[in-house]
Specification:
The complex is a heterodimer of chains A (108) and B (176).
Chain A: H1 15-25, H2 32-43, H3 49-61, E1 65-67, E2 77-79, H4 81-107
Helix pairs in contact in A: 1-2, 1-3
Chain B: H1 3-6, H2 12-26, H3 33-48, H4 50-57, H5 74-82, H6 93-119, H7 123-141, H8 152-175
Helix pairs in contact in B: 2-4, 6-7, 7-8
Classes of the chains: A mainly alpha (108), B mainly alpha (176).
Chain lengths: 108, 176
Amino acid sequence: MAKHPDLLSGLGRFSEPALYILISLADGPKHGYAMTQDIEAVSGQRLGPGTLYGAIARLEARKWIEALPAEERRRPYRLTSAGQRVLRHRLESLRAVARVGQARLAEA
Amino acid sequence: MTADRLLRLYPPAWRARYGDEFLATAGEAALSARNVFDIVMVAIDAWLSSDVRNATRAWRPAADSAGPAASGGGMPMLKTMLQCGRTSSGVTPRDGLIGAGVMLAINVLFAGVGIVLHRSGWTATGEALKGLAFPASFTLSMPWWLMKGTPKRAQAAILGFTMALLIAATFIATKI
């Protein structure tokens, strides 16, 4: 597999929250509160509201997610096709790393 | 401390873009110390990050785009502090001026001591102090505006905790 730069790691301390947000939006649009609930259910991590919107702003700036019309005070977001590509690449990288780790554990 | 008070820490363009949904997500109840710290740290990031400015710029009404807030950084924040007197928070223009003065004085003090140390051969410590100048001045000015009306004990706990974290992070940064 050709090596691509890991675009998510360019987000610094927001890269992990951003990954969780992309994963959360992979099955459909969600607003901020629904994302925090989903992320907590999936990963056990509860994102603070500051970190959540810090990551959302960065993902939006890169056009990896986009805002939909607001529903009352809540605004849902959805994954863009560029965001899908970044997420797919990141998950493939993680899968490759996990495969190596598991193989080494099996050998030990 | 509730999210709507902490929201005032954020740049005007950020508040216009994310304010409503941020409050809907954070809720209106008192926040935990962890969430207060999270919101304060990301507020500093919102003033400094070009990424965040890019995300909020397109959202800003055209009439606002040529104003002083467009450049980001310290002056809009001082302006926000001085405007506190127009809100219902109980912060007067005098409080805003004192807060701005404290912020400026601590910035100058930390940066000055940092420069002296740097020139005296204490390079890492000097750099660390200069890096600490803005977050420390911001944090220590909060009792005059953002924390106005908060019980003194809570102010002392939040300031002590935040300053301890900032100093610990700066100390670690000088060791790596």
